[in-house]
Amino acid sequence: MHVDIGNALASVASPGVSRESLERLDDQVADAHERIERGMANADHGYESLNLPQRTDPDEIRAAVEPVADAEALLTVGIGGSSLGAATIANALDSDTETVFLDNVDPEWVTAHLDRLPLENTAINVVSRSGTTAETLANFLIVREAFESAGVDWTERTIVTTGESGPLRDLATRHDLPSLKVPDGVPGRFSALSAVGLVAAAVCGHDLEALLEGAAAEAETLTGSLFECPAYAYGATTYALDQRGAGTNAVMPYAESLETSAEWFAQLWAESLGKDDLGQTPARALGVTDQHSQLQLYRAGPRDKLVTFVTPREGPDRPIPETDVEDLAYLGDATLGELLDAEFEATEASLAAARRPNVRVEIERVDEYELGGLLYGMEAACVLAGELYGVNTFEQPAVEWAKKATRGLLGGGEFEEAEAVAEKTELRVER
Ligand SMILES: O=P(O)(O)OC[C@H]1O[C@](O)(CO)[C@@H](O)[C@@H]1O
C-alpha cells in the first residue's frame, strides 16, 4: 500500500503534525520497530501475526476445502476477527460462489439467510479460535438443524477452523470433519491472512498465493522509519494526530468492494488500541456515498477527527451516456470512474481547504495481491500504533464483562455482571 500524509501536516491541517514532530517521533518508531522485529523473531503472542505470510500454507487450506470446492454458496459462521477478515476478502473480490457471513444473532436475519440458501449445495465454514463464542455456537447449532431438516448431511459440507481444543475441535474430531487450526499467537483481528480468513477465499476460488505474496511484499517494507515504511507512516501519523485531538478516525474507502474492509479495520483499531482510557475511535464511511451524509460533519464539525481515504489507483470503468440536459452535459463526456476519481480528489481537497486532517492510503487495484498488502499494512500500522500508545495491543479484556453478563442472564452460571444488568438505572420516556 502507498500512504500520503501530506494533508495531516500542521502546515495544512489543525489538528496537524509538524515535520519536526514527525522527525522526533521517528526515533520512537525506530525503537518500536526493534521491539516488533524481536517479537516476530521470537514468535511472541500477537507479533506472530506479522509472520503469517511465511507461516500460512495455502495447500493445507485448499486440501481442507476440497470436498466443498464446488459449492454454490458458502455460509461462514463466526464473529469478529473470525468473520471480518474472510468477509473483507470475499466481498472485495468477484466470485461465482455466493457468500453469507452469519456474524450476528438477529433471528429474522439468520432465518432469512437460511431460508433462501441452496443448502444441498452450500458449504459451512465455522470459525472460532476459542470454540466457545456464544453467537457462533448458537448460529452453528441452528445451521446444523436447518441442514438436517432439509435432509442435507452437514458433516459432508462443513469445514472447521478452531483452536487446538474446545467444543468445535471436539465436534470436528467426533465427526471427522475437515479442520484447520487457528494459528497460535495470532489474535482474531490479526488472522485474516491465516486459515481464518483464507478458507472462504479458497472456496470462492481466489488466489491464496497472491494474497500472501502481497502481504509478504508489504512485510518487506517494514523498516525503522516512518519516512520509508507506508504502514509505519500511517500508524505513526494517526497516533500523532490522536495525541493532538483527532480522537476519531473515519475510514472512507472509495470503492464499494472495500466497504467491508472499513468494518474489519474498525475491529482491528478499536480492539487493539482501546485500552487504559486511550485509543482512537474508528468510524466507518464510504466514498462517494458519505459525501452526501457524513462529509458535513467531517468538514465543519468538531476538530476531533481525521479521515482516512482508501482508494484503488485503477479499476473497471463504465462510460456515462450523453445527455441533452444542458446542465448535465459535462457528465456525458466522462466515465463513472472519472466521476468517482474527481469526487475523491474534490473531497480530499475540500477537507484540506477546511484544514481538516486526512490521509490517503492507495492500492494499485482491488485484487488478491493488493488486498493482501492492504490487510498486512494496516495490521502492521496497528501494531506500531500500539507500541507508541504503550498499550497491550493483542489482548481485549474489556469484552469479557458483557460475555459473562450474557451467560448469567441465560442461566449459564452465577455472574455478578448479570446482577448488575438487573440494577439498571431507568428514566423511561414512553411514547
Ligand atoms: O474466534 P473466537 O474465539 O470465536 O472469538 C471471536 C471474536 O471475539 C473476540 O474474542 C472478542 O470477544 C474477538 O477478539 C474475536 O475476534
TrEMBL record:
Reaction(s) this enzyme catalyzes, per UniProt: alpha-D-glucose 6-phosphate = beta-D-fructose 6-phosphate
EC number of the protein: 5.3.1.9
Domain of life, per lineage: Archaea
GO cellular component terms given for this protein: cytosol
Active site (UniProt): 271 (proton donor), 292, 403
Primary localization: cytoplasm
Annotated InterPro entries: G6P_Isomerase, Phosphoglucose_isomerase_CS, SIS_dom_sf, SIS_PGI_1, SIS_PGI_2
CDD domains xrefs: SIS_PGI_1 (cd05015), SIS_PGI_2 (cd05016)
Task of the protein: Catalyzes the reversible isomerization of glucose-6-phosphate to fructose-6-phosphate.
The name this protein goes by in its record: Probable glucose-6-phosphate isomerase
Species name: Natrinema salifodinae
